[in-house]
Amino acid sequence: MADLSPIDLQKALSGIDYPADKKALVDCARRNGADDKVVSRLDGLKENSFDGPNEVQKAVFNG
Question: How many CB atoms are located within 10 Å of the residue 15 CB?
């Protein structure tokens, strides 16, 4: 998804505690005021559990 930047993702997930599941990522992004493209991308991830921000970033940008 070219219109989503790593910075957008970092801002959306600011303050989240890891490990985190997909629902926690989506909830955090919504609380942080992330736009719909970020929230829907997180909600569409195949994995359900993430140990840290690097795992989330890989899942979002590498599928």
Answer: 7
- The whole-angstrom separation of Cα 29 and Cα 13 is 6
pTM above 0.70, yes or no: yes
Q: How far apart are CA 39 and CA 1, in angstroms?
A: 13
**Residues 38 and 44 sit within 8 Å (Cβ to Cβ):** no
Q: How far is CA 39 from CA 6, 43, 51, in A?
A: 13, 6, 19
Whole-number Å distance between alpha carbons of 25 and 47: 12
> Among candidates 8, 3, 17, 33, which has minimal Cα distance to 25?
17
Q: Which residue do the tokens 């921000």 mark? A: 53
Whole-number pLDDT of residue 34: 97
